[in-house]
Every structure is written in structure tokens, then in C-alpha cells.
Write a structure and sequence with these properties.
The structure holds two protein chains of two kinds. By secondary structure, chain A is mostly beta strands. Chain A has one helix at residues 18-21; strands at residues 3-4, 40-48, 58-63, 89-93, 99-105, 121-128, 135-141, 165-169, 175-178, 181-182. The model of chain A has no long low-confidence stretch (mean pLDDT 95). Chain B is mainly β. Chain B is 7% helix and 26% strand. Classes of the chains: A mainly beta, B mainly beta.
Chain lengths: 194, 243
């Protein structure tokens, strides 16, 4: 057995991170380039507290596979192609109305184990003042039939699953998926023990 | 200590991490989730992350005393902060992106929401970043931040600290935390530090003065190591405090 080193505890990101973490070359609302393969989508949502009040000093990070279902990471040894124009990492601040947004592509399905695939999803990490640890969740696409068989989504109680489903909004030239993140209370978003 | 395991995966150190709801830190009251976090299996999605790829960005500026670009130098006690980023097996994490931010020597942030009457320093932005080297070592040159008041409770002051954001090998190793300074009387009064449940874990957030890091006629040296979750994990026997 290996002696495990104690992890460094988390502390809140606080209210003053914006100049460092959201500086022009650190903010990544746009994950795509024109040539990025896949269905180009926009993700929009708000981060709300337990009173339904918008959180204007939050930060949302996302991590996702490309349109072929391949992560740009050495641990993904799959056969799906990498897309040189897509890294899969996004970072957005929130505005006074709690709004965050990303321009990205809908990810392809990635493997769960040797037999099963996961439904297309995006990993979401939320930071803010008042969060001593960041929160981790997933965005799924409400109009995706594969959700019904997704091994992670199936771990979530039926009556809370809807909080992880981004709803497609019609109209406009870009497909918009809406995903509000509610930290506390009614319709509290499901967060994972990760 | 006990760990929840799924397959060969060990969950994070819940004894180390603060709870979401910590009444003494008022902002947690309306932002802490109230429903239980859901246990889910770890998949390729969690065992990967942007760390290796975004580490390709240039480590442009680890000198906070001069990176305001004014040609002038920040006022304050010049310090070197260095240490290693390790995973929980004790293996150095190379090419990890660290982003830091801090108040100036007077305890004032260059931020529109920081309006207390501490003086700003035109030569100090209070932000920097660097990559760890092949041995997991990082190094910043900065000035020692001041303490500053906040409105959490009457006469509340945050102890001097530097915020760190770390990208390790996977999204499980993502860490945002704060480094504190030794022998600061404000530490025992700080609800954010004291939300960390154990003394041994709180100690991990406090840098050590290291005279071997101190440079003659130049800067005082502090050493601070960080431990993040590894790229994967196998069952371990934990020996708390051993490192």
C-alpha cells in the first residue's frame, strides 16, 4: 500500500478573483473556432442563490469532449479523432443578472466502460464567494434520447434529474441550450460527490 | 479516516475539505447546497481535464512586483513564495498552471468591489501566474499582502493571504485555495480558514518561513506545497499527517 498524502484543503475563490481569473487571456467563453467540427451551440444560464437572487460574482468552468466524443487529454486513449481546433475547456464569469455563457459544440458520446456509452454531457464546475469548495455537476441535453440510459444520470433521483437537463431554445441562427445553476433551495441543481 | 470507494477509486479527503454550510462565514448561508451531493461513478470525463493542454500557455509573469507594466516596483516587503505541487501519491505535478491573486501590501485589492480606505499601489496589480517545472516546483516573487477588513461580522479582518488556482492532471485535481502566513494572530479569528475541519488540514494552508529561500539583500522566502488529487487513484492506507 502507498501512503497517501493529505490533500490541500479548498478555500473560497472570494469576491476579488476577476482580474486574475477573468483577465482577457484567461476568460474562455468561446471554445470554438470557425472550423471546429460539430454542431455549434450556445450555452446560456444564470447562477442563483437560495433566495433566487442572481450571483454576480461566480465563475463557471466547463470541460467536454469534442464532437467525436474524444477528450483532448492523454488519458483518453480512444480511437475517436482529436479536433485540433477544439480544446474543450471554458471559463465564464457571471454578470449582474447572474448570467454566464459559452459558445461551444455539442460533444459526442464518450465511453462509460467497455460496453456502455455515456450520453453527451459537459462537466460543469462552479466557484463563488460563499462556496468553500467548488461544486461539480454535469450539463446534459434535454432533447437527447441517450439520457435514458446514461449510467451517471441514472444515479440521480428521478425527481431531481431535470436540474441537469439543458433545454433547447428555438429561434435565432444558433442553437441555444439554457442551463441555470441553482445553488440552494427549490429546484436546487444536483451536485456530485466528486 | 475512512474513504468512500467505488471500484478502485478513492474519493477526496472529506476530513480535509470545509463543509459547504459554515454559519460563521455568512456568505455560505444562501449559497451552500442543502441537498446531499450525489455519489456517481468516476468516468473518463472526470479522469481527464484541461490541465495538460492549457499548461501550454506561456508562463508570462510570475513577478508580481513588476508585472503592472508601469516600469515601477510594487511597494511592500518583497517575498519569494515557492513550493511544489504534488498529487496525493506524492508525485510532483509538472506543467501545472497556477494563477494567483492577492491584496497589496496595504491590504487593498485592485477591484471595484473593494472600497475600504486602504491605499492602492499604482505599481501593483496583485495577479500573476506560472507553470510548475518538471519537478512540480513553482516560484512567485511578490510583496507580502496586508490584512484587510470585511463585513462578515463586526471588526472582521481577513488574515494576509494569497489566493491560488491550480489545474492538475484531471478535473478532480482542480483546486482553488488560499495560502496564509505563519504567526499571524488573525488566523485563529478567520472563519474561512477555520471552516477547514481539522488542525492538521488547516496547517496545510499556512506557508513556512524558509531562510534557505530568503535571498540576501533582496527578499524573504516562504515555502508552501500543495497536494492535489492524482490523475487516478487506487485504494490507500491513509496515515494522516504523514508526508
Amino acid at each position: 500500500m502507498i501512503n497517501r498524502h493529505l490533500q490541500t484543503p479548498s478555500q473560497t475563490v472570494g469576491p476579488f478573483f476577476t482580474p486574475a481569473l477573468l483577465r482577457e487571456d484567461a476568460c474562455r467563453n468561446v471554445l470554438t473556432q470557425t472550423e471546429t467540427i460539430g454542431e455549434h451551440i450556445r450555452i446560456e444560464g444564470r447562477v442563483l442563490d437560495g433566495d433566487g437572487i442572481p450571483i454576480s460574482d461566480a465563475m463557471v468552468e466547463i470541460w467536454q469532449a469534442n464532437a467525436h466524443g474524444r477528450y483532448n487529454h492523454p488519458m483518453d486513449q480512444g480511437t475517436a479523432s482529436l479536433d485540433p481546433s477544439f480544446l474543450g475547456f471554458g471559463r465564464s464569469g457571471t454578470e449582474s443578472d447572474g448570467a454566464y455563457w459559452f459558445e461551444t459544440i455539442k460533444p459526442g458520446p464518450v465511453p462509460f466502460d467497455k460496453e456502455r456509452m455515456q450520453a453527451p454531457h459537459i462537466c460543469v464546475i462552479v466557484f463563488s464567494r460563499g462556496l468553500l469548495n467548488h461544486l461539480m455537476t454535469r450539463l446534459y441535453f434535454a432533447d437527447e434520447p441517450a439520457n435514458a440510459e446514461d449510467p451517471v444520470l441514472l444515479c440521480v433521483p428521478d425527481d431531481r434529474r431535470a436540474t441537469l437537463l439543458a433545454q433547447c431554445q428555438q429561434g435565432g441562427t444558433t442553437l441555444v441550450y439554457r442551463f441555470d445553476i441553482i445553488l440552494q433551495g427549490t429546484n436546487e441543481t444536483v451536485f456530485f460527490n466528486l | 479516516m475512512s474513504y468512500t470507494t467505488i471500484g478502485t477509486i478513492v474519493r477526496g479527503d472529506r476530513e480535509v475539505f470545509p463543509p459547504y454550510l459554515y454559519e460563521a462565514y455568512q456568505s455560505t448561508r444562501h449559497r451552500a447546497p442543502t441537498l446531499p451531493l450525489i455519489d456517481v461513478p468516476l468516468t473518463l470525463s472526470e479522469l481527464t481535464g484541461p490541465g495538460p493542454a492549457i499548461s501550454a500557455v506561456t508562463a508570462e509573469d510570475a513577478d508580481l512586483t513588476r508585472n503592472a507594466g508601469t516600469g515601477g516596483e510594487a511597494i511592500g516587503q518583497r517575498i519569494i513564495v515557492t513550493g511544489r505541487v504534488l498529487d496525493d501519491r506524492g508525485i510532483p505535478v509538472p506543467n501545472a498552471l497556477l494563477e494567483v491573486w492577492q491584496a497589496n501590501a496595504a491590504g487593498r485589492y485592485l477591484h471595484k468591489r473593494d472600497q475600504w480606505p486602504g491605499p492602492l499601489d499604482p505599481h501593483f496589480l496583485g495577479m500573476g501566474r506560472c507553470l510548475t517545472n518538471e519537478d512540480g516546483i513553482y516560484r512567485f516573487l511578490t510583496v507580502r499582502p496586508g490584512a484587510y477588513p470585511w463585513k462578515n461580522h463586526p471588526n472582521a479582518w481577513r488574515p494576509a493571504h494569497i489566493h491560488f488556482s491550480v489545474f492538475g492532471p484531471s478535473i478532480l485535481s482542480r483546486l482553488v485555495t488560499q495560502m496564509y502566513f505563519p504567526d499571524d494572530p488573525l488566523l485563529q479569528l478567520d472563519p474561512i480558514l477555520n471552516a477547514v475541519p481539522t488542525e492538521v488540514a488547516r496547517t496545510r494552508l499556512i506557508a513556512t518561513y524558509d531562510h534557505d529561500v530568503t535571498e540576501e539583500e533582496w527578499a524573504l522566502g516562504y515555502r508552501w506545497d500543495m497536494v492535489v488529487r492524482g490523475p487516478y487513484a487506487t485504494p490507500f492506507e491513509s496515515k494522516e499527517g504523514e508526508q
